Amino acid sequence: MRKEQSVKMAKALKKHGKEYEFIRLENGDHYLSLYINRLKFLTETEKFLADCLH
Question: Measured in whole angstroms, how far is the alpha carbon of residue 15 from the centre of its chain?
Fold first, then answer.
């Protein structure tokens, strides 16, 4: 999603006292075409699931 949309969502979550983590992927696209972005996304997803499913 575009950076502006992400920032808007983060502000809304903060306003309503919701926990969130903002992760920015440089030169990212919806297909995670760059290896470094794919690795970052999957690593962060794994951490999120481990925290939620412990």
Answer: 18
Degrees, nearest 5: CA angle 26-20-42: 50
Q: What is the pLDDT of residues 1-50, one digit of tens each?
A: 788 999 999 999 999 999 999 899 989 888 999 999 999 999 999 999 99
CA neighbours within 13 Å on the CB side: how many for 20?
Answer: 16
- Determine how many CB atoms are found less than 10 A away from the CB of residue 9: 13
Domain assignments of the chain as residue spans, ordered by start: 3-52
In 10 A of CB 11, how many CB atoms?
10
The C-alpha atoms of residue 37 and residue 40 are separated, in whole angstroms, by 5
